[in-house]
Amino acid sequence: MKEFDYIIIGGGCAGLSLAYELETNNKLKDKTLAIIEPREDYKRDKTWSFWKVFSHNFDDCVKKSWNNFTINIPNHTKYIDCQSTPYQTIDSGRFYEKILFKLKLNKNIQFFKSVDEVDKSGSIIFNSVPNFENKESKLWQHFSGVEIETDKDFFDDEIFNLMDFDCDQRNRVHFFYTLPFSKKNALVETTWISELNNKNLEDYEDQINNYLGNDLNIRNCKINFIEKGAIPLFRQKNENKSNEIYIGSAGGMTRLSTGYTFLNIQEQSRYIRENIENIKNVNLFKINSKYDFLDKILLKVLKKNSTEMGNIFFKVFNTKPKTAINFLSNKSNFFEDIEVILKMPKWKFLKELI
Ligand SMILES: Cc1cc2nc3c(=O)[nH]c(=O)nc-3n(C[C@H](O)[C@H](O)[C@H](O)COP(=O)(O)OP(=O)(O)OC[C@H]3O[C@@H](n4cnc5c(N)ncnc54)[C@H](O)[C@@H]3O)c2cc1C
Fold first, then answer.
1. Which of 69, 111, 120, 261 maximizes ligand 1 atoms within 8 Å of its Cβ, making it the mutation to test the pocket?
2. DSSP assignment, residue 233?
3. Which of 18, 202, 219, 229 has the most CB atoms around it within 10 Å of its CB?
């Protein structure tokens, strides 16, 4: 079996982002890399969105970018300007195509379907394969979305809706998310934060049809793409091995309160590339622990006060737009943290903290 300097297990968002970062920074000229990925072919499977709080490698995969968004709770809508950190949506199909095209030009990079096909003994391994224990009873952000096309101009594509909480909550956290890519084309998603063992919440198709018909007033549309997924809002337990580093969602790159992961993956890839020659001896890249601490309290409050979550997220945006966006994108300073914390219902948070 062949040996490699580096092995990336899982050629998804994190695995491919890391491989691209290494390749485009000439770290694979004299080193070999095996990428282990079982999927047969790559096609569009996800839509990754985030506020662009720093530059990344994938501006040419952006499907649409917005400078304004709204957030709704019953009887209130907030309009927020995000011009300095536009909200971008990346088409995963374009992302896979761009990266695979580049990687296939380097003979030092090889693809395999299973880890049993390579000799792992002397390699540095970057592992992005999820390892979920007791997954049913833990909190997830689970969702389903449809990309629709209307026959007439319908959407204002200059502004997207981040969260519309003006909907059936069923004693959980529920909101709709609408990304208008053009006047006739939008992704409309129903999103829940709950344990996975509650199958009653998974009538996604009915939820979306109701929302399209009754809230958005869309009677006729064509569905071009369906997205379905679940993002773990908990940290995975990984075995500690000296030559194995966990990356991506498996490596703790998901923000627990929001599910945002894509930009954290890009930051982790950059950190690994910068330290690749000495990677076994440097600290692991982590999301700043203050966010894990605050998010875990928020999730505890959420478990007991699910129906108030809309109000709580709404209040985060009662701060300056830059403050809220920096906070949700792990880029807030001490004063911005305080500004957000002061908007939270203090007794509920203190109770969970104690
Ligand atoms: C539908 C969806 C939409 C999302 N939208 C957003 C968003 O808008 N913004 C955001 O910031 N985050 C978003 N996320 C969260 C996060 O960005 C994604 O989950 C992202 O794909 C995580 O990257 P990853 O590499 O950790 O996992 P993945 O991209 O899932 O990659 C893991 C890879 O491992 C492979 N694999 C599985 N088992 C094995 C095995 N045994 N051996 C080898 N390989 C294996 C899989 O085939 C897969 O390719 C979304 C998640 C989902 C599911």
1. 261
2. -
3. 18
Residue type, 39: R
Q: Give the Å distance between the CA of 96 and the centre of ligand 1.
A: 12
Mean pLDDT of 129-138: 81
Q: For residues 184 and 149, is the Cβ–Cβ distance under 8 A?
A: yes
109, β-bridge pairs: 33
**Pocket-testing residue among 8, 43, 47, 48, ligand 1, by greatest number of atoms within 8 A of Cβ:** 48
Atom in ligand 1 nearest the alpha carbon of residue 92: 21
User: Which CATH topology does 2-70+84-131+236-278 take?
Assistant: Rossmann fold (3.40.50)
In the reported structure, the alpha carbon of residue 178 is separated from the centroid of ligand 1 by a whole-number distance in angstroms of 21
For the stretch 241-272, pLDDT in tens is: 889 999 999 999 999 999 999 999 999 999 99
Average pLDDT score over residue span 284-289: 94
Q: How far is the CA of 293 from the centre of ligand 1 (A)?
A: 24
- The residue ranges of every structural domain in the chain are 2-70+84-131+236-278, 135-232, 289-353
The span from the CA of 232 to the CA of 140, in Å, is 5
Non-local CB neighbours of 350 within 8 Å, separated by 6+ positions: none
User: What is the per-residue pLDDT for 200?
Assistant: 85
Q: Which helix (H) or strand (E) holds 7?
A: strand 6-9
Closest ligand 1 atom to 262 CA: 11
Task: Tell me how long the chain is.
Answer: 354
Within 6 A (CB) of ligand 1 lie: 9-15, 36-39, 46-50, 115, 128-129, 227, 229, 231, 248-250, 259-262, 265
- For the residues 216-235, what does the mean pLDDT come to? 93
Nearest C-alpha neighbor of 41 from the set 123, 88, 100: 100
Q: What pLDDT does 350 receive?
A: 79
DSSP-derived secondary structure for 51-116: E--S--S-GGGEEEEESEEEEEETTEEEEEE-TTS-EEEEEHHHHHHHHHHHHTT-TTEEEES-GG
